[in-house]
Amino acid sequence: MNLFLQILLIVASLLLILLVLLHRGRGGGLSSLFGGGMQSSLSGSSVVEKNLDRITLFVAAIWIISIVGIGLLAKLGG
């Protein structure tokens, strides 16, 4: 079970990094360095942003659950 949670944590961490980087930048931070500050007509719709937000929150919930699970197994098992 511990190995499964560790693998789940690694996969969720990588997915979370990828999903956060896919979000549109709100300000002029690092996203404008790579062209994120430019507005174009092909930049996506609000439906895509909402779905990306939902997927990000789902992966973040999996990440938190795996962290708590690993912590509980470490406390109870060793």
Automatic annotation (TrEMBL):
Transmembrane segments: 55-74
Pfam families per record: SecG
Subcellular location: Cell membrane
Alphabetically ordered keywords of this record: Cell membrane, Membrane, Protein transport, Translocation, Transmembrane, Transmembrane helix, Transport
Keyword Chaperone set for record: no
Membrane topology per record: Multi-pass membrane protein
InterPro entries documented for this protein: SecG
Family: Belongs to the SecG family.
Annotated function: Involved in protein export. Participates in an early event of protein translocation.
Name of the protein: Protein-export membrane protein SecG
Source organism per UniProt: Kutzneria chonburiensis
Protein encoded by which gene: secG
